[in-house]
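Morning - LV4SOB2L inputs below, output right after.
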Amino acid sequence: MDLVYIEGLKVDALIGVYDWEREILQPLVFDITMATDIRQAAQTDDLQYTLDYFAISAAVTALVEQSAFQLIESLAEAIACMIQQQFSVSWLRLKVSKPGAVPNAINVAVQIERGSC
Ligand SMILES: Nc1nc2c(c(=O)[nH]1)N=C([C@H](O)[C@@H](O)CO)CN2
């Protein structure tokens, strides 16, 4: 199994449980690990045979900017399902960080792994 990574993708989102959070955008950070087989892409040097991290980053950014979930858990599930369906990813690990959420913590996050959607 080969892996394609997207690390530290930052997107401002409408996210949160509390009333004040429904009126602002807050920064979220996404770390994504996706399983694939890079051999055909490496042999042909052709982007169409691998996972395009640029296209996937754009799709994640668009989904997040259009979303309005309360929980980062809900957003994580929606992103994982979109990536698996839209880009035919058989397995992925996704970490969603909300670094400003707890004043005395460097970061809070959820991480999920999905083999099917
Ligand atoms: N496991 C979670 N806990 C909490 C979440 C969340 O999305 N997942 N959200 C909040 C509030 O929105 C918080 O971020 C406000 O600072 C609280 N706990």
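Note: The mean pLDDT is 98.

O.
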